[in-house]
Write a structure and sequence with these properties.
Adenine-n6-DNA-methyltransferase TaqI, Chain A, domain 2; alpha+beta; 4-stranded antiparallel sheet
Length: 383
């Protein structure tokens, strides 16, 4: 063990407070991205007195499936109100708050390197359980409280900027859809045209096999967010092909129902990217523009039409692009498209800029987390 590292177990102990008197009813689970969320368990008729109580600044974790998921679901409570978690979870608290900050420890748990290490400590069970003693034997650097607070403050500053940008984008997205409905909501008596006259579906491109190209996974498209969270370079084998300003439209359940639709941006200039075969690629034909195509793809009527056209076995249903081509819109789009573009362009461009800034800030977060292991001088470490 590195001389400047300490056992996690030297700073924590388990808490086993049960809801014996039935004082609490809010039941939370732990998201794989390491935050508490409302439990999806059906607790009707369940005896909640056996469930564990989590109080302010206590941690909870689920060690059961670390080997399978290659990640330890763990979170710290920021709430001043106690709540419940599953009896299968471990609840623990810091016993030396004068040496280790809660937020600093949670930052350590958030590191990708930490999750990789937990996988190595799991047992041979098919689910890969992480033993409590093994968890306690894992180590972390423990600098002075002042240094810990400095690291935490830097991290939270970045997080807060991301949060503000996300709130701005949510408001801008709502504005974009409001504008779209104002311009293009029509009654049934108006003349209509097939969107095949305005949108090219899955345009043909060629990427040589084996060429390194930007790759976007389905998981890179965040539900109800305009921009992708990023891309990675990958050797091309197969997949949907696209360029900047194309629209990615998820065609498979539950991604379609959950609203996975995005504008491609940030690819190197004049380059092609590729991604999941479960994307339908939508590209504007003149006089349409990608702003209008994106708003259409987000529109409730269009999405309901797509969902109603899904075919296939339960759990693997898909919509085919040929069905989407038969969706109709008002023929007035040809008359007002340029004016609509002038109105919607600054709104959508602001969302794209904020999203690209957040992608960069996420990389800064990863860098701050990674540097935790190396940033301190040994003399700074607490006794």
């Amino acid at each position: 063990m590195k001389s400047n590292y300490r056992r996690i177990g030297d700073f924590i102990e388990r808490v086993n407070t049960r809801n014996k008197e039935g004082l609490y009813s809010e039941l939370l689970g732990i998201n794989i991205n390491k935050y508490f969320m409302p439990s999806v368990a059906n607790v009707v008729g369940t005896d909640l007195t056996k469930y564990k109580v989590v109080e302010h600044q206590m941690f909870a974790c689920n060690r059961m499936h670390v080997g399978r998921d290659m990640r330890l679901p763990i979170a710290v409570s920021k709430s001043t109100d106690p709540f419940l978690v599953s009896p299968a979870y471990d609840v623990f608290e810091i016993t030396k708050p004068d040496q280790l900050l809660h937020d600093y420890l949670m930052m350590w748990f958030t590191r990708a390197e930490f999750d990789r290490n937990t996988w190595f400590f799991t047992d041979t069970d098919v689910r890969g359980k992480l033993g409590w003693d093994s968890f306690c034997d894992m180590t972390l650097p423990v600098p002075s409280l002042e240094k810990q607070q400095e690291i935490v403050d830097d991290y939270h500053t970045v997080q807060e900027r991301i949060r503000i940008n996300e709130e701005l984008n949510n408001a801008l997205e709502e504005t974009a859809q409001t504008l779209y409905k104002h311009w293009f909501d029509t009654d049934e008596n108006q003349d209509k045209v097939f969107i095949d006259d305005l949108i090219e579906f899955n345009p043909k491109h060629t990427i040589p096999k084996g060429l390194m190209a930007p790759y976007i996974e389905m998981s890179d498209v965040i539900e109800n967010k305009l921009s992708v969270s990023g891309y990675r370079m990958r050797s091309f084998k197969s997949g949907s092909k696209f360029c900047n300003n194309d629209i990615l439209f998820a065609r498979i359940t539950p991604c379609l129902e959950n609203g996975k639709t995005a504008i491609v941006s940030g690819l190197p200039q004049n380059s092609l990217g590729f991604g999941s075969t479960e994307f339908i690629i939508m590209r504007p034909k003149k006089p349409a523009n990608f702003y209008w195509v994106y708003c259409l793809a987000r529109d409730e009527k269009f999405r309901n039409y797509a969902i109603s056209s899904m075919v296939g076995s339960s759990g693997r249903q898909r919509v085919h692009s040929d069905y989407l081509k038969e969706f109709k819109v008002s023929s007035k789009v040809f008359d007002v498209m340029d004016e609509f573009e002038n109105t919607i362009k600054p709104v959508i461009n602001s969302v794209i800029q904020n999203s690209e800034m957040n992608n960069k800030l996420e990389e800064v977060k990863k860098l701050l987390l990674s540097k935790m292991a190396t940033v301190m001088d040994e003399k700074e470490f607490a006794n």
